[in-house]
Amino acid sequence: MQEYYLGLDLGGTKILTGLADKNGKILARSRKDTEAKLGEEKIIANMVASIEEVLAKKNLQAEDIIALGIGSPGPLDAKKGIIIENSNLPWKNVPIVEKIEAAVGIKTLLKNDANAAALGEKWFGAGKEVDNMVYITISTGVGGGAIIKQELFSGVNDNACEIGHTVVDPDGPLCGCGNHGCLESFASGTAIARMAQEAAAEGKSKKMLDLADNIVEDVDAAICAQAAYQGDQTAKAIFAEAAFYLGIGLANLVNIFNTEMIILGGGVMKSADLFLDKAIATMRDNALPGPLEIVELREAELGSDIGLMGAIAVAMEDRLIKNG
Amino acid sequence: MQEYYLGLDLGGTKILTGLADKNGKILARSRKDTEAKLGEEKIIANMVASIEEVLAKKNLQAEDIIALGIGSPGPLDAKKGIIIENSNLPWKNVPIVEKIEAAVGIKTLLKNDANAAALGEKWFGAGKEVDNMVYITISTGVGGGAIIKQELFSGVNDNACEIGHTVVDPDGPLCGCGNHGCLESFASGTAIARMAQEAAAEGKSKKMLDLADNIVEDVDAAICAQAAYQGDQTAKAIFAEAAFYLGIGLANLVNIFNTEMIILGGGVMKSADLFLDKAIATMRDNALPGPLEIVELREAELGSDIGLMGAIAVAMEDRLIKNG
């Protein structure tokens, strides 16, 4: 009998669901709007509709599916299957696993999105050949997930590897978490946008302002990148600043996890040529020789499928470890 | 038949060897000078003499011993049994496991001292009741060892958990490793001594200078502590500075390891009342709520036996995990 798995990537604006065979090959997909503003019941109904649509596409029933994996922004309690909070979804303490299992009758597993992405890159992406890796996403925020001896390192209550909220300079900028100088406050899309808006407001970059039709609040990381590609020195300096702190964060990871591979993903990596070389050079300057000599840095391979492939890897994790 | 284990704590000035039963109870001890200056062969001869002395005390032979654990400062390659380098011992790339096994005929295992101490506190000290913990030693340097699901997390080549060399402020002081702003450069005995000497040289603390007979180079962390206990404001401020950065380092550990317990040991902890409260407050300010709510901070319990008990735990690790 064919083995089928489902993955569901729960985002603030869209729900992506995929059906995969036992090798992680996607056989069918569905995409629905999250409709977050319509509240908890509607979001869950949209998730269920997405799952049902993907099953219908291959004429499958719930009993044909071994497991469903959900990747969601956190914080969440993966073991209890509860999403504790979510800045993009208007809910608190939602027992999502229980609700989805009740609605569709498929065994359901939950992980935070960065951990799911780490599993995705481990089993289907850049980390296929290694047993130990750390995945870092550089996106709106900075998140991470570590694989140790093939297994996801979740920590005691699913909060491990919050690399974005390690402090790399206590005198640094205010972070969304309320502290100062977290890695995320220097090297995320949000941080780059903040620096770019400040520079634009201070009249330091006509180019960025111009690209944003002179609306300072519309200057974001993408505009900063575009300006940098067009030679704007201020924009380039902003990426250099982010790169430096990213390099410090990477060195700290090297010294703590002593891992085989660090994989970098997330939206900001689309402009990797603006900052990655400097980040790597800073990492090499700051990491200890012992752990540095065995670590390899790679870009994520799953691209826009990372959320979906991560969720599928969550569904398959037990099987993958056994056969890995 | 009784099960016996040996532990050997290899230090720059002394070699401590202990014989333990299967419960980790020390039955006999030996102490020898390392005589580091006399070179590799002499150091190894002293280790062997120490082992033989402890066996003789209980009238035991090599074949009565299940395993010998060695704890040594690193960097080292535990799997290969090689001490790569050691700032206190005049050797490089010494295949210590092979040499000791050849000399005494006992199965030998090697770990770096901080990792060994982590195992010691896990199995015989403050961490007995938990499966996940991080041990931090605040001593000449700052070192660490993490236990994940009862097992020592060694990393790919025995360099995991080098928390002392994670950067907490890139503009910080020069560290022994060559970088700036490592945790060790703010919150070790060496860092406290450096700050105290600077203050004494600038005439900011007559008390510290007085305690050092006006020899600036003799001002060390112990003198700084003594001055602080006697009310010297400069000395107190130095401990407060170290405490702040220690707290940042602890918060980063909490956010990365999401562990049940952090255990603090090492010589500087003898003056814990000068800095621990502030370090804990800073940790609480900077860690995320999720991992913070489940972590407990404890002082190490093994005191001056930590090196020896750590080495014994190294010898016993396989047995302890099986029976733990």
TrEMBL record, chains A, B:
SUPFAM superfamilies: Actin-like ATPase domain. It comes from the Bacteria. Belongs to the ROK (NagC/XylR) family. This is ROK family protein.
